[in-house]
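Session log. Operator J.P. requested a structure for one protein chain; no other inputs attached. Running the standard single-chain path with token output.
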Amino acid sequence: MTATATIPSLRRARLEARLVAFVVDSVVLLSFIFVLLAVAGLQLLIASDFGKGEAPDSSFYAVLAVVMAVIPLWLAFNVALCRWRGQTVGKYVADVRVVREDGRPLDAKTSLVRFLLLHPLLFHPFLALLWVLTGAILTSLTVSAAVLVVTFALAFLSAAAPLLAIGSILLDGRRRALHDRVAGTTVVPAGGQEPS
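Structure written below.
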């Protein structure tokens, strides 16, 4: 049986399940951000002897590094989960998973490509400020207007990506978001396929 013959037998996840997954993943992302910010703040507090002195400049750079690390760490966390289980935390709660269009599990490359293609978990409104902060730091280091433009474009995309994903799911007959179409993936109920 060819891969194209198995495509129609895949059930597609309902929009409601995908929205639940997005909301749960958003809560996890917010928790992820708060934990890293708490670590950064604790490091600064310890460096300033719990407010008794002034923290050295190196402590501020360490805080910036922790804040800037949120995006790549969040990406790595979700790519690893999708590669390992085919699910983010939200998809696990919503009882859906990501597979290739032919029903096979994701490999690391497909999972990474899927997230880099305007996936609303990487281009999330919660991350827009971090994209701007990262760009502002890089712009101050490089004195490049191009870096600033790219940064604000990433921040704009962070606000728009969830709407683009919902719109593309609604317009696609197989309920795929833009990142699913390009990466060749689809979201299905965790049970997988319709009985034949």
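Operator note: The radius of gyration is 20 Å.
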